[in-house]
Design brief:
mainly alpha; globular; 417 residues; Cytochrome-c3 Hydrogenase, chain B; three-stranded antiparallel β-sheet; 18 helices; 8 strands
Length: 417
């Protein structure tokens, strides 16, 4: 009999399911994957080196561009590290605002993951459903920061500004009727908190719609059940965090185990899987969206009933208000110095971490006492997950490679930083 040789196939980087810059070399026996070689380094952002030449506040914008689906969560991890070095306490209202936007960002992340993952596997409609709700969250981003994606809203000592009292409205255009315009603006007549409250009321039904399309769908279950199974022991060995770890049955969530900001004051549950497969990880992220919605409702309720500062009064770290600058020479000097030179951070090193939508996002900073980080190292959750890609793919079919890359929810911006 003739000897059949294994075939080597390039999966990506120019592949719709390989996220643009992930290259996986597959060794195939027929359609079964025998061996894999995962290549990163095609994006090569150099973020960790770039921030060594910028002041601390100028680096916040770089954090947005790491995982460009979970912008404010990236900022949060970085800002917490600076606050530890400075030994400052953030006002309670700013902490609630941060938690509010962390959870909105978690939903934002999971919606793109769900739409993209379903599209990769072959379900077209879910993508359009998910982007319908993403637009509302982008409007919240824009209302507080002026930017729809890269917000740079979190600042050491609090947030850039308080939540606005009114939401931007759709304007009348030539071919739009007044009734349609009124319908578009019906939930925009109040403040941003009113708009978010309306979103939390509508959103559970939207999640029900996603589940109607997928959860008991025969094709979806055939493509995800038993695919990419990871045991609890292996998940720990690979350094999995977030839904990837919880999908393997380990109940670990930094918001509960090592709480930060005001998470210990809020009620929520941690969804945990049983089988460690792609279907379990799907169910966990669906439930996480429901829990995030519940957390947002609690934050909105507190913020509506409590007022206060959203930043420090120390103008050497946080910017003075515009009214102060117009009337006080010292405030103007503070503002000029803050945006031209920044502030000096005490010598030392610190590691801070948050429960990012993808897992544990950590920032390690070494300070030499100057106004720039001496060294910054980012612990991106996706890096550990993509490192286990070869293990998860081995023995599966080529079609399952797409499913396994999708279930990891990786963004190469943070991995190849």
């Amino acid at each position: 009999m003739s000897k059949v040789k294994s075939c080597t196939l390039n999966f990506g980087p120019q592949h719709p399911a390989a996220h643009g810059v992930l290259r996986v070399i597959l060794e195939l026996d027929g359609e079964t994957v025998v061996r894999t070689d995962v290549h990163i380094g095609l994006l090569h952002r150099g973020t960790e080196k770039l921030v060594e030449s910028k002041s601390y506040n100028q680096c916040i914008g770089y954090m947005d561009r790491l995982d460009y689906v979970s912008m404010m969560c990236n900022e949060h991890g970085y800002v917490l590290a600076i606050e530890k070095l400075l030994n400052i306490q953030v006002p309670i209202r700013a902490q609630y605002i941060r938690v509010l936007f962390d959870e909105l960002t978690r939903i934002l992340n999971h919606l793109l993951w769900l739409g993209g993952h379903a599209l990769d596997i072959g379900a077209m409609s879910v993508f359009l459903y998910c982007f319908r709700e993403r637009e509302d969250i982008f409007d919240c981003y824009e209302a507080v920061s002026g930017a729809r994606m890269h917000a740079t809203y979190y600042r050491p000592g609090g947030v850039y500004r308080d939540l606005p009292d009114k939401m931007p409205k759709y304007k009348n255009v030539k071919f739009s009727s007044k009734s349609k315009l009124d319908d578009l603006n019906k939930n925009r007549n109040g403040s941003l908190l009113d708009f978010i409250e309306d979103f939390t009321i509508r959103f559970p039904k939207c999640i029900d719609e996603y589940e109607t399309l997928l959860t008991n769908n025969r094709i979806w279950k055939q493509r995800t059940v038993g695919i990419g199974v990871v045991s609890p022991e292996d998940a720990l060995s690979f350094g999995f965090t977030g839904p990837m770890l919880r999908g393997s049955g380990i109940e670990w969530d930094l918001r509960k185990k090592e709480p930060y900001e005001v998470y210990e004051k809020l009620n929520f549950k941690i969804p945990v899987g049983k089988n460690g497969d792609s279907y379990d990880r799907y169910l966990i992220r669906i439930e996480e969206m429901r829990q995030s919605n519940n957390l947002i409702m609690q934050c909105v309720d507190w913020l509506k009933n409590n007022v206060g500062k959203v930043n420090l009064d120390n103008f050497k770290i946080s910017s003075p208000s515009k009214s102060f600058m117009q009337n006080d020479m010292e405030s103007l000097i503070h503002h000029f110095k803050l945006f031209s030179e920044g502030y000096c951070v005490p010598e030392g090193e610190v590691y801070s971490k948050i429960e990012h939508p993808k897992g544990e996002f950590g920032v390690y900073i070494i300070s030499d006492g100057s106004n720039k980080p001496y060294r910054l190292k980012i612990r991106a959750p996706g890096f550990a997950h993509v490192a286990a890609l070869g293990y998860m793919i081995k023995g599966h079919m080529i079609a399952d490679v797409v499913t396994i890359i999708g279930t990891q929810d990786i963004v190469l911006g943070e991995i190849d930083r």
